[in-house]
Amino acid sequence: MEAIFNKGLFRTIIAIFAIGLALVPFNVISEDSVNVPNSKYIIKSTEQGDSYLRPQPVTAAKAELDRAAAIKARLVENPKSNRDNIWNYLVKAGFTDEQTAGIMGNLRQEHGYETSGDGLAQWQGGRRAKLMSMKNPHSLKTQLDFMVKVELGGGYSGVKKLLKKCKTVEDAAVVFCNKYERPGIPAMNKRIAYAREAYALYHKDI
Question: Which residue of 5, 46, 53, 100 shows the fewest CB atoms closer than 10 Å?
């Protein structure tokens, strides 16, 4: 008799508990109601049926990409110091002030004296691939060596000969644009203006 009583009491308790659960309101957590810290590092993806934002850890691959980007950024010198160093390098390589300014006007138009991405001269195709195969391809020294020693001293030696004949800033800017850069949209007025600017900044009358 006592066993029957205990079993009935247990069933009564279970029934009351179930009724209580049914009366408690159930709120589904949505993405809008979840406070996710460091959200820019979280991948907003959910499995089918999920109603909440599932945080994902930053992967090793992403961490490696971030590290590579930081290293690359350190290799790209400040454009101001780049400008000074480019002028000195080209003059030392044997170009006159006028010829150097003509080259620099083009480099500023191409990429603002920066060595990131496709580089100072915005090399493309096989030329870019050749540059990128060199050690430290985004360093200023590497790119200047590639332009002057590898290209103007090799396959583009004809361009160098034409440059050496230029007596004015304007002629040098046009030759370097048409024969070396060969852009789809020349924007020649800008290249010449930038070349004149470089000449006015660095040329010293003796």
Answer: 5
The answer to whether 137 and 143 have CB atoms below 8 angstroms apart is: yes
What is the spatial distance between Cα 8 and Cα 17, in angstroms, rounded to a whole number? 14
Half-sphere exposure in the Cβ direction for 149 (13 Å, CA): 10
Domain 73-202 has CATH 1.10.530.10: yes
- Separation between Cα atoms, residue 122 and residue 7, nearest integer Å: 85
6 neighbors 29 (Cβ within 8 angstroms): no
What is the rounded distance in angstroms from the CA atom of residue 206 to the CA atom of residue 204?
A: 6
Query: Model confidence over 27-57: pLDDT tens digits?
Result: 443 333 334 334 333 333 333 433 333 344 5
Cα–Cα distance measured from residue 76 to residue 41, given in angstroms and rounded to the nearest whole number: 26
DSSP string, 71-100: HHHHHS--HHHHHHHHHHHHHHTT--HHHH
The pLDDT of residue 79 is 74
Q: Which amino acid is at 93?
A: A
Instruction: Say what the pTM is.
Output: 0.64
